Amino acid sequence: MKKHNFSAGPCILPQEVMVKASEAVIELDDIGLSLIEISHRSKEFVAIMEEARSLALELLGLEGKGYQALFLQGGASTQFITVAYNLLESKAGYVNTGTWSDKAIKEARLFGEIIEVASSKDKNYNYIPKGYGIANDLDYLHLTSNNTIFGTQIKEFPTTQVPLVCDMSSDIFSRQLDFTKFDLIYAGAQKNMGPAGTTLIVVKEDLLGNVSRKIPSMLDYQVHIGKDSMFNTPPVFAVYVSLLTMRWLKDMGGIPTIEEINEKKANLLYSEIDLNPMFQGFAKTEDRSHMNATFTLADESVKDTFDAMWKEAGINGLNGHRSVGGYRASMYNALTLESVGVLVDVMSDLERKG
Ligand SMILES: *Cc1c(COP(=O)(O)O)cnc(C)c1O
Fold it and tell me: What is the pTM of this model?
């Protein structure tokens, strides 16, 4: 039986996507060949890449607005470098909301001056800084929309005069935002979109070509745009499975529909965390993530009991990241409300046992 998979990433994908993906590995759409043995220049794969790129823009409401979508390799971590390579001429601002922003800052420092505009490091990143000033002479401001490890999420994005860049790896396609506010969005596939191996980049084209340094081809967004995201062999399987997940999302009604479901899941779990005296939430209430809920036990002595109970209930992937401890329940798009219900039942059973 399939487990209730709360893993933080790689993570759960829709079951129907898994079935279609596994079929395509054997044979893609009755063409007598496997998805992973055909040329990426074949008309079948070119169509897959084109649909994936346009569907990403469509789901975000960014079609025909000067944006391009790319599916590149190297994970979100390579984007920490690529963003700076392409956009950082002298000075950029970064809001430090956790491990991933911190890593993005470290990489960008290789290319210019980085201003840490705000940070929540003082409280082990359990909140989102707000009300900070943003200088007008920055090349861009970089944010992390959802902090996968700490379980915080930006609910309101600042209005900026400077280009806005956002790492949306762990909440892409999970909620409605005015995506036109952003000039560059990137997201590693393996949190909410597909298997590991590709990263979605959505970039406003007029942002590019403004730095004086020479950019190696593989790190140059303009090169990838010029080659329709096929400058070199793309990660064909990861792109195809991401496309299947985007189709699944579109068929159910797109981001507005999944946002409602995600809200129900988060409300169900957070009300249990708030009401059940056995548990304590980690993230500040107003900033807590609808994707990754972080919490600890009020009394560590029941840890073994609780761990045995959730494992017995068929739950997987609940252990917290070592920098927070406790537990982390990741409730990405494909996780059902029923699975969250199973976790909540286990939590209230623990309270009953006392
Ligand atoms: C997982 C994660 C990353 C790193 O992604 P890789 O694809 O492993 O490089 C970056 N940012 C955020 C917010 C993440 O959750």
Answer: 0.98
